[in-house]
Each structure stands twice: as C-alpha cells, then as structure tokens.
Amino acid sequence: MPRLSINQWSMKTTPCDRFIDAVARAGLDSVGLWRQNVAEIGVGRAAKQVADAGLSVSTLCRGGFLTASTPAARAEALDDNRRAIDEAHALGTDTLVMVVGGLERGQSIREVRRAIPATIAELAPYARQAGVRLALEPMHPMFAADRAVISTLGDALAMATASGDDSVGVVVDTYHIWWDPAVLDDIARIAQAGRLLSYQVSDWSLPLASNPLNSRGVMGNGYIDFAELTGAVAATGYSGKVEAEIFNESLWAMPVDDALALVKMRFDSLVAPYL
Amino acid sequence: MPRLSINQWSMKTTPCDRFIDAVARAGLDSVGLWRQNVAEIGVGRAAKQVADAGLSVSTLCRGGFLTASTPAARAEALDDNRRAIDEAHALGTDTLVMVVGGLERGQSIREVRRAIPATIAELAPYARQAGVRLALEPMHPMFAADRAVISTLGDALAMATASGDDSVGVVVDTYHIWWDPAVLDDIARIAQAGRLLSYQVSDWSLPLASNPLNSRGVMGNGYIDFAELTGAVAATGYSGKVEAEIFNESLWAMPVDDALALVKMRFDSLVAPYL
C-alpha cells in the first residue's frame, strides 16, 4: 500500500474529475480534497468517482476561519464548519483540516488564541457524531495575522487538549513547522496524546513567491530535512498517509501526469525511506 | 530623555551624514547605525559627527553570518565580526546586533543551531575586552533558511546561556517575535538572566513586500499589539533605548524629516505610553 496521498491543491488548476482520474492512473490510492474544488462536481459525485477509482480520502481541507469578532460572523463560521464536517463524512474521510483564522487589526493575538479551544469544543461533538476528527493546523508564523493564529505544534496540542475532546488533533505539515526548535519533541508529544492526525510534506523554497501562500516547493527544492522530520513522525508509530501538499505555480503549470510523477519520485527518494 | 532611537535602516536611503543631522534636528538623541552606511563616511568621521550632534549610538548592526560550513569561510566570518566589534567600540556603542546566518541546502537546521554557542564563545572575549556585548537576534521564521537560524527568543536565550559568557545577550524585535506564544514569558526570562540588550519596534504589515525583508510597517500600520509587548519589556525594568527599525519602501520614499516625524508620532502614541 503506497503511503503517499496527493493533496488536491498540489494540482489545484486541474479540474476535480480529471484530478481524481490522474491520481488513480499514477497508481496511487489516496487523495486529500478541497471543498471548493469538490464543489465543481458536487460532493456526491466526487465521493462516487473517488470510490469507483479505488481511492480513499486522507483529509478534507478545510474547516476553520473561526476567529471572527462579531457573534453573527462567528455563528456563520460555525455553520459553515458543520457543513464541512458533513462533506468530510460524505466523502468518507475521518479528518477535517482546520485553519483556525487570523486577526483583525487591533486584536491581541493572545486573546484570539485564548478563545480557540472553546470554539473548537462547540464543533467537536458534531464532528464526533459524523466520525470526523478536527485536525488543528499550525501554520507558518508568516500567516499568523491573516490565516491561522496557531503558529506552533506545541500551541496546537495545547489547544486540542484544552478543547476537552479526545478526538481533536493536529496536522504536522513540514512547510509550517520545520523551523521550530521544539518540533521533534512536539511531534512525539502529539502522537503520545493520540492526536497526530495527518502528516503533510512540501519544501521551504526561496525566494518566497509574490503570493507567499504559493511558495511551497516540491520536496528536494528547498531547505527542509525530510529525513529528520519524517523519522520523528515514523518513530511515533504513525501509519497513516503522507500528503504531498504543494502550492506552487510551476507545479500547476505542468501537465498533471508529469506533476504527479515528479512529486511521486521525490516522495519515494526523500520521504518514503524514512517511514 | 527621549526613549526613542532611530535605526539607520528606517532611513536607509538617506546618506549617513544627512541621517545623523536629521535625527538631531528632530530632537532625538540616539541612533542605531549600520556598518555599510557608516562606511560611506568612515567610522572615525561618523563617530565624531554623532558626538558633535549630541547623539549616542544605541546599537551597531550587524555582526553574524557565522554559519558557513567551510573552515576558511568560517575564519573569514570571525575576522569580519572582530572588525564589527572594533567598529562598535569606535562608535561608542556597547551593543552589536548579531544576525547569526542561515543554512546551506542539505544542512540540518538543528545541527547548524547546535554549533552557534561555541562560535559565539570564540568571539565573546574579544567583544568583552572592547566593552561590547553581542546581542543575538532571533529573526522571524520566514528568515530561518537565509538569514538567521535563531527563530525564537527562547532559543536565543538558550544559545546566549550556552555560550558560557554573561555578556552575550538577546535583541527583542517586535517584528520577529510578535507571533510567538512564549514571547511574554521569554522576555521576562531574558531580562532575569541580565541579557535583554535591545528592544526594537516595527509593525507586521500585510501584504508582504516583494522583498519580504522590506515588509516592516510603521507602528500602527499592522497587527502587533505594542501595548502588550512594550508592557512586558517595561515590566522587566528595561530602561534602555527603543529602536524604531523599519525597512519599508514607502518610508524610504518620504523626505527624511517627514519620515522621522511620522515614526516619532507613532512611537509617542503606541509605544511610549507603555514604557
């Protein structure tokens, strides 16, 4: 069984149905899906196409954006997250990636962080009932203001624990956490707590893209030591899929079969040996 | 006595002699200088001009870039750092800001970090003899690969301690550390250890500039809570200067007197009240 799963945004510019076909054609058996891309063909049809192709769904991206300051916006965000949970269930994945949201100017990042566990606790029972685990994703600190106030694995674990729900977990994405001095210990602690829900890989390439969100590199095109991080994940006994999640204009410009072949080759040489 | 000091790169495009004049004209009494800008007129002349204008020098930027992997490049970097220490002494400042350097592709960030304390220990006696303290600057994790492998205040303190020299300290720069969940505790720990050498301010503005190094915003133009961070610094008893260090194309495009007036106004309203 291959360990590699292809996150849909690694091939973001490929229509959903062609993406699913291409992954199956590449001999892989798992995809990470994105809600807005699935919406192109509808959740029902996507679920059927994935099943017919013999694929499983490692994660759904994404819930979150739960830091709005007004009660109305917060209620709307919670509703949207319940829909995301429903979609995860319908697509047959047990993991919903949560990008918790950023700040408004004038808010204290510490206060916004403090409110996260209670908000997650409001969603967790609904997720649990759907057989879906909420996976908090710490993002690189360059996204702390606009995307996710969770910046470290340690903080993600603390918030998952503080939510009071055992099913809430954490995503380990190399791009976001490779620089963290505590990363090796924190991976172990997260797994020890039964909360290591997803391992995602991409490289830290420079220079940053003009839209920094799209700066992720194919493994081997940057500075991340995949042996060390993958070894730390494997040492915990993690046996799940490893998602290649690479937002990169060059990769998007390639024919999808070539892009998949490149990602698979780099995964096989730089990540798989340490699993 | 004003607490504000103006870092030279906030007015990077202004020639050194005119920068010194402009700061004095603005009624301020301190500058943070940069080696390459000082070199325009020479260290001796810069020292004299600063003294004649009644200014002190809060810090010199910068030493560091000490992570080269070959012995020859490392020896050259150590030599350059000794020259930087000499220049700091000649300019009459007791603080040399150290940007320790990044990675080469294929190096483990953990191994590069592990080597830093011993390298700093090689320089520390020379610095001590010159009456100069080496101030390790943790930089935002988006610079971990290319500028400084020290990404957190906690790690900077650990490395300063591990250098075995009491004179080695840490720079707290809001831009680099504002996102860190441990920042308030770490500021206290650094001061408790007698190692809080400089407090620098600028804001986290979005979007990032095309050169991310120049994304720093004037205080009030971004997401940083200066009350909280400045309060934490002040609570330690820190009584030194506060350097406005703002690399920003818009600020550089302004007439220097206007730029200084803007920085001073924002400092007075957003930082000074919490000192």
TrEMBL record, chains A, B:
GO terms for molecular function: isomerase activity. The lineage of its organism: Bacteria, Bacillati, Actinomycetota, Actinomycetes, Propionibacteriales. It comes from the Bacteria. This is Sugar phosphate isomerase/epimerase. SUPFAM superfamilies: Xylose isomerase-like. InterPro entries: IolE/XylAMocC-like, Xyl_isomerase-like_sf, Xyl_isomerase-like_TIM-brl. Keywords: Isomerase. The keyword 4Fe-4S does not apply. Pfam families: AP_endonuc_2. Residues 20-254 form the Xylose isomerase-like TIM barrel domain. The keyword Transmembrane does not apply.
